[in-house]
Amino acid sequence: MGCPACCFVIGVAVRLALPSVLRDEPLFARLFFGQSLSVLGDRVTFVVLPFAVLSVGGSAADVGWVTAAGLVPLLLLVPVGGVWADRLPRHRVMLVADAARFAVQAAAAALLLAGRCGVGELVALMAVSGAATAFFTPASSGLLPLLVPTERLREANALRGVVMSGSVVVGPAVAGGLIAAVGPGGALAFDAVSFAVSAVFLARLGVARPADRPAEREPFLRELREGWDEVRSRPWVWAGMAGMSMYHVVVLPAVFVLGPVLADREWGGANSWALVTAAFGVGALAGDLWLYRLRPDRPMVVAAAALAVASCQAVVIGCGGPVVLIAVLEAVTGVAVSVFFVLWETALQTHIPERSLSRVSSFDHLLSAGLMPLGLALAGPLTEVVGVRTGLVAMSAVAVPCALALLGLRSVRTLPAEPEKPAETEAVAEEAAATG
Questions:
Q1: DSSP tag of 420
Q2: Do 201 and 231 fall into the same domain?
Q3: Whole-model pTM over 0.70
Q4: What residue ranges of the chain have pLDDT lower than 50?
Q5: Do the beta carbons of residue 371 and residue 245 sit within 8 Å?
Q6: Which residue of 81, 245, 384, 425 could cross-link 134, Cys pair, CB 3.0 to 4.6 Å?
């Protein structure tokens, strides 16, 4: 008799401890819990994959080939994924993509554990995984407004950001433990399980297509063009994408390429760089938690200011100060990164029509993260000419004004937190309230 009562009390306590958006929106709660393990699995794979390549006799160049094999299909197919995510129930697109990624990671894990895996097999499997991700990503961005009321999208995105940022801090430690305990194959098996868990939760989402989606499909290229027209017709959208592209192309190479170089040359090696990256992750996590409570009336104004602060990452890394100071300043930029991305995602989900949201999100991904390899390729040669410190200062000197330029657009300064109701709708609402 006591056990059921204890379980009931514990269940009530856990429920009360949950953020209100998880308590009040059960469909979002299912998505959130399913995706939390999957995001951690992705972070683990990011760390494990190079070691998997090396474990089968691959070289540093082979690590690059395997990484590119996952990235190229993603970039080529993400606009296609956006169209299909707007055509079909988005949770089903995500479910099929997760099933494919489960199969890929399970196959890679089995081959590695059996000692029958080579670089060629990893290249082929990661290409399939990248193609599946190209369909999953825009569908995921477009799904949230179907699960959460408009006024709670910011809270939902902030909680998703908490998981993303937390996985940046926890993921490398989990990956290191798994590699030590069960090897790269066992670590990839963990990621496979995470996709299976995500698929189970997605299967329990009974979400239909967007209500404003036309019943009949139009030709594929016309639908793709309609998605681009949604971007082109809104200055705050295309300007935001341009600013974010500048961040990915100009600033992030400082983190992925030049930061480790400077740490190796001047900071004492990998431990110092690990401190800086961990501080950034903690700052990003704090930013997500702050965004759960922050309610800006003009979200894109705050987002543009945050992007300007985030663009200071490069000059912070190259400032020449003590490592502890650099870590503290990187934590501040981590807060800014989270603020920008949560408010940006929420603005898109709030103001873009549901029928085309996944297509707009696909262009967002293509024009930001898709251009990052260009910056990664150019960062090294540039600093060979001007020096690492000068290059880092120049990166922020270019990116910060670009972010601040967003504030020059009236549509950025005046975009409200929620769409304004048409006059007719307001009149009807007032009349209904008056009549009780």
A1: P
A2: no
A3: yes
A4: 1-2, 4-16, 423-436
A5: yes
A6: 81
